[in-house]
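User: I'm putting together a teaching handout on how sequence relates to shape, and I'd like one worked example. Could you take Alpha-ketoglutarate-dependent dioxygenase AlkB family protein from Streptomyces desertarenae, show the sequence you're using, and then write out its predicted structure as tokens right after it?

Assistant: Happy to. First the sequence, then the structure tokens directly below it.
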Amino acid sequence: MGTVGRRGGGTGGSGPDEGGGDGLFRLPAPAAGPAPGAVHLPGHLGPAGQRALLAACREWARPPAGLRTVRMPRGGEMSVRQVCLGWHWYPYGYAPTVVDGDGAPVKPFPAWLGEWARRAVAEAYGEPCGVRYDIALVNFYGPGARMGMHRDADEETDAPVVSFSLGDACVFRFGTAEGRGRPWTDVGLRSGDAFVFGGPSRLAYHGVPRTRPGTAPPELGLRGRVSVTVRAR
Ligand SMILES: O=C(O)CCC(=O)C(=O)O
Ligand SMILES: [Fe+2]
């Protein structure tokens, strides 16, 4: 990856489907920190983009290799339910099949989602992105679900991670690579936002201490929150 700065301008027609003004993507909005290499893109996905991504998530959630509860090695369960694309993540590694679930082959990672991720990275950093994205983790947050501070450290590449948010707003806590404690910045993520973290922030601890139930855009028809985090293995 090249220099990591704030985005410059628009990225032009690099998306898989511009949606003819129907709001698949919004015009670039001002991008902001909270840390070097970590860029919040508020309102990155327009209404049509949010609808399209949510419809895809609903398909991906179906069995086989569908939504599952993740069991942690020490016996706890994640409150967020998850489905993976491309490679199946389990604590702590990647497998071609759902080794900690129904054993089915993981669903394919769609090329268009890689395009969406590259588009977000290009907007965040103001330069083209050539990463071959091949993994997505789709997280479903019901009432009270949260995600503890962790690093996305099971990938072999240092390609930026891109997350897309749908539904209820949340507090996204973004810390440092040094440890899971302070200092951190609490960023409010809302439906349609993208968040990119790469470069010096690639291995920063982050988590979702809470969502804000009832704040999803009503027209989306989603209760709760969904995040889609795209990575390169
Ligand atoms: O839900 C989010 O926004 C964060 C998800 C996350 O950190 C992950 O999937 O590793
Ligand atoms: Fe993460």
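A couple of points you could highlight for students: The helical segments are 47-60, 111-125. The longest strand covers residues 77-85.
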